[in-house]
Amino acid sequence: MPLSLLRLGFSSEIKPDFPPPPAKLKPSYDVVIIGGGGHGVAIAYYLAKYHGITNVAVLDKGYLGGGSTTRNTAVIRSNYLTPEGVKFYIESVKLFRELSNEFDFNIMYSERGQLTLAHTDATVRAFRQRAEVNRHFGGRTEMLDRKQIHELVPLLNLDTGHMPILAGLWHIDGATARHDGVAWGYARGAIQRGVEFHPLTEVTGFDIENGRLKAVKTTRGTIQCGCAVQAVAGHSSLLLQKAGIRAPIHTYPLQAMVTQPVKPFLDQLVSSSALHCYVQQTGRGEILIGGGSDPYPLYNTRSTIDLKEGLLAHAIEMFPFFANVKLMRQWTGITDMTPDYSPIMGLSPVENYYLDAGWGTYGFKSTPICGKTMAELVASGGKVPELIAPFGLDRFSRFQQINEMGATAASH
Fold first, then answer.
1. Does domain 115-175+251-337 fall into CATH 3.30.9.10?
2. 24-113+176-249+338-412: what CATH class?
3. Residue 224, phi then psi, degrees to nearest 5
4. What's the pLDDT tens digit per position in 123-141?
């Protein structure tokens, strides 16, 4: 062990330099970003580094990355259903691969591949189409038969009870990364460039005149601003109500759990929408198990015994030896779901108030590209980047939804 590290361990003079202590709110900012999770700090980072906009305040009613950013399962992928979705997430994967170099900070990005299982002939046909769409736009996705699946994941039970596995969709680009590392990397880079981060600062309302945003009201006072961006994940609909905006968003709990650590046996991410279950092994050896959202809206991060029992039963169908492994902990996040299971990005009915909402279970994997494109939107004064134009709120009034239902590792 280096002596400098040993001295640091015994020192009583250690003072963390990040994040810096909260400063006093200024009367006005060029940009106010509401939400200090991965998306919020990513937007601030790209504004500061690539557009030179540093008079920015990031507000959060809690702490840095303390919401949905820390309550996901850190999966990164681009094997979606629609051309719009595939193009968007492919760009995000490209950015994720370079984030450690971008930050000079290790986010522990690990390309592991994702295997999605098909249990019916209809699913096999759908997977073939999905693979073609992914390959067309540059993604690495292909079909596997039962023999190839067995060679890839030898311990997987191919005859899972009443739903045997017929084929699989193998997404080579599937990966994981440290969610807190991503949030802290973006936040550190933004704050180093002059962006202010204000935790424990809840937004209570807005000052809107003639359809234009003038100021943001908080528990620490009112802030004048040139524009504001909403990036609050599971609380999107509540904040939209304060701005007088209607959006088709409903919030559902999403639960996951991990077992005690075991020796490495599973490098790939394995999921089954028919069984409503996905499984991966973390770098610490824990078996992470997750599934679809709860079937009813709720703003609560409690865990439930019924979902635990259902998920574990399906996980044991896929990997029977899980029956001998002890469960260690269970947690819940809250997710904003839209009717077409795609996000809402871009302009809102309020001028100078921009939306980053409705992410459902896709929020973490979109962090880099969302930060980049939303920063472009803000810096341009409201010109929507082509990549996110299809995800505007007005698509629902135009009946031009982007249907990504069933694109998750576990269908909703």
1. yes
2. alpha beta
3. -75, 145
4. 999 999 999 999 999 999 9
